[in-house]
User: What shape does this take?
Amino acid sequence: QVRLVESGGGLVQSGGSLRLSCTASGLTFSTYSLGWFRQPPGKEREFVATINRYNRNIYYADSVKGRLTISRDNAENTVYLQMDSLKPEDTAVYYCAASRTGWSSSQMQNYDYWGQGTQVTVFA
Assistant: This one.
């Protein structure tokens, strides 16, 4: 059974950093593309970042470019989201997702498996 488990969320001051991790099991990790999405309080889930199976074609939402960085470690079946220069508007539940297509995508419908989310709260 496929599982994706996020970790690393928490409370951080504006301007600070966090590193989220998402570890997958039950799938051939190196063949899957990966994505990060987030859902701010009272808002719909939105795209954050994506990376394809070849560790290329990396894309970010405009709101996070230059501050958040997606990476993957196939040996550890883990995708990371390094978050720097955090802002209060980054406050959200963050979800990782995996797509069997192997292609990077900003669209939720292209992902087959999802983690249950980790809370990130940024205070001013």
Notes: The chain has a mean pLDDT of 98. The longest strand covers residues 18-25. The chain is about 0% helix and 50% strand.
